[in-house]
Amino acid sequence: MHAPRPDGAPILRLTNVNKHYRRARQGQSDIIHAAKDVSFDLERGQLASLVGASGCGKSTVLKMIAGLIPATGGEIQLKGDKLTGPNEQIGIMFQQPTLLPWRSVLENVLLPIEIREGRGAAKAARDRAMQLLQMAGLAEFAHAVPGELSGGMAQRAAICRMLVTQPELLLLDEPFGALDEFTREQMNVEFERICRSREATAIIVTHSIQEAVFLADAVFVMSPRPGRIVKRIEIDLPRPRTSDMITSTRFNEYVREIHDLLFGGEKEAAHV
Ligand SMILES: Nc1ncnc2c1ncn2[C@@H]1O[C@H](COP(=O)(O)OP(=O)(O)OP(=O)(O)O)[C@@H](O)[C@H]1O
To answer: Which residues line ligand 1 (CB under 6 A)?
Structure first.
């Protein structure tokens, strides 16, 4: 389904990526091995989820790909080129939408362009931003301020802001973690639809196994720290994903497999 790029290079390739943090404590320093030999490829249009116990190194992996922190070993390539720092082709989104409260929703969406290329470029991109807001069901709120939006609407606005620069790769760290369960499920459906319509390539860190399965073409399951990828599970469910799939046998087999990898077969808990 996801044909390799003609030049043979995947969109993203991690090869034996490691991260050691140095932590200073009471005059002494110790080393934390947060990510260990992390290797995987992502092809264009693939959505991947990263799951693992709290503190296993998921955010660390995302931050290294984003170029926010350097890897201490291994290599990260975007479209065959080594990544050495922040890259304009990568869009990032965190748990809190962090919209500027004094700017309208439209002005918030245009902010990354204004910062990178100036006000003229932001003005020229208004139509593109409006199309994104339309797609996210927010056209009516383009001129509202963030305080007038619900949590789910604010997250959708943040997704539009991430997409407005047309990044090649999206990195999302617990993007829907602060939302109630009902809104979160709706956001999963919306997000999948938006990604599909734009052939987006994305990695989503999540604590919800269900969310991981629902969104992804591949789920990467990480071990406790130092986080290694213990298994890549290809999710062979049709797209678009729909809410009723969550109760299907196939879906629940995936959830169970991931759950057992994370908890060694313990019962209960769909969140990690
Ligand atoms: N800047 C830092 N300096 C020192 N140690 C850090 C730093 N950032 C993270 N760590 C440590 O690295 C390990 C991995 O952290 P990370 O945030 O990547 O985990 P995570 O899997 O995303 O956790 P969670 O699911 O709880 O958000 C943790 O033990 C954490 O304490």
So the answer is: 21, 23, 32, 34, 52, 54-60, 225
